[in-house]
Design goal:
It is a single chain. The chain is an alpha+beta fold. It folds into 2 domains: 95 residues; 216 residues, BirA Bifunctional Protein, domain 2. 43% of the residues lie in helices and 20% in strands. It has 11 helices and 9 strands. Helix 1 packs parallel to helix 4. The chain is elongated.
Length: 333
């Protein structure tokens, strides 16, 4: 009888200790630790219950009932304390995460497409819609691709040091994207239709309408039976789509080493005549340089300055605004 009383006393003492620890617990993690400590398979109550083997068959049910009673009290206490802790946590989060709707909003500024890139995208999209393929080439070029293969004479002013950026090894920063035409034709057979956007470099004095670094877009079409009429039709359709209306257009005779005949194109925009691009039929010598038969194939090409189009479209009065990264200016686009 002494043995069962001792076990009963230990069980009730454990129950009281467990309830006290539960009341002091301030987190769900601590509650779980208490549960395992008292009710787990190797918990304190299980250790005491192993002593039931020393009791008589009549005493075991009595002690088992006490153990179950204490376990139920502990479980009930654990549940209530768990609910209390969860309610506290909810109240804390509500208090900390409450929004003050009277405070000014905090927004993240979104990036925008630069007017130069936007103009390039618009030009390229128009020509792609007309069946052209986008082509690209290196910005550091050789004299051959930038001048010689484009039928540029040895004494042409464009080759001068004051017009072109040369490196010590004889290479140079391309002065136009026409070099892309040569590289593309060397690798592809006619018929071809390409549009080549890119950055180019010239020794220009920087002012409101000139920059030493600017962007060009060139087109090239080569095939059988292409004529100047095809060139004019292509340019007029491009300008119509670019400016969104049927703009008055004038083709003026001009000279470029790599086209013959050549022309410059003016459009009447907001009451003024503006030069917007140069064009012409591909010179037979250029076709010969890439292995095309000029007796079988003809072609036309055109090139335009992206900055000029951007300034016209957005009514920008100074080209330097496009390179100054002034957010007050760029946020307009």
């Amino acid at each position: 009888m002494t043995e069962i009383k001792e076990l009963e006393r230990e069980l009730r003492s454990l129950g009281e200790n467990a309830e006290k620890e539960i009341e002091e617990a301030d987190s769900l993690e601590k509650l779980e630790g208490i549960r395992v400590s008292y009710l787990g398979k190797k918990g304190k109550i299980s250790v005491i219950m192993k002593g039931m083997g020393k009791l008589s068959p009549e005493e075991r049910p009595y002690l088992g009932a006490i153990a179950n009673e204490i376990k139920e009290k502990i479980q009930e206490k654990l549940k209530k304390q768990q609910e209390t802790i969860q309610e506290r946590e909810i109240e804390r989060r509500i208090k900390e995460e409450t929004l003050d709707v009277t405070m000014p909003g905090v927004s993240r500024q979104l990036g925008r497409i630069h007017p130069i890139q936007g103009t390039i995208d618009r030009i390229v999209d128009i020509f792609v819609g007309m069946g052209y393929t986008v082509a690209e080439g290196p910005q550091i070029e050789t004299d051959y691709y930038n001048f010689t293969a484009l039928n540029t004479p040895e004494d042409h002013p464009a080759r001068d040091m004051q017009d072109t950026f040369y490196f010590e090894d004889g290479t140079l920063l391309r002065t136009h994207t026409s070099s892309v035409q040569i590289r593309y034709m060397e690798k592809h057979k006619p018929p071809i239709k390409i549009v080549a956007p890119g950055r180019v470099y010239r020794r220009d004095t920087v002012d409101a309408t000139h920059s030493a670094v600017f962007h060009q877009v060139e087109i090239l079409a080569v095939g059988e039976g292409l004529t100047f009429t095809d060139l004019k039709g292509t340019i007029k359709e491009f300008l119509r789509r670019m400016f969104g209306e049927e703009v008055p257009t004038v083709f003026r005779a001009s000279y470029f080493p790599f086209t013959e005949p050549s022309a410059e194109v003016d459009v009447k925009w907001q009451g003024k005549w503006l030069e917007v691009l140069g064009c012409g039929m591909v010179d037979p010598n250029v076709l010969k340089a890439v292995g095309y038969d000029p007796e079988k194939y003809t072609g036309f090409a055109a090139g335009l300055g992206v900055e000029r189009f951007a300034m016209i479209l957005h009514k920008i009065d100074d080209i330097r605004r496009l390179y100054q990264s002034d957010l007050r200016f760029l946020r307009q686009f």
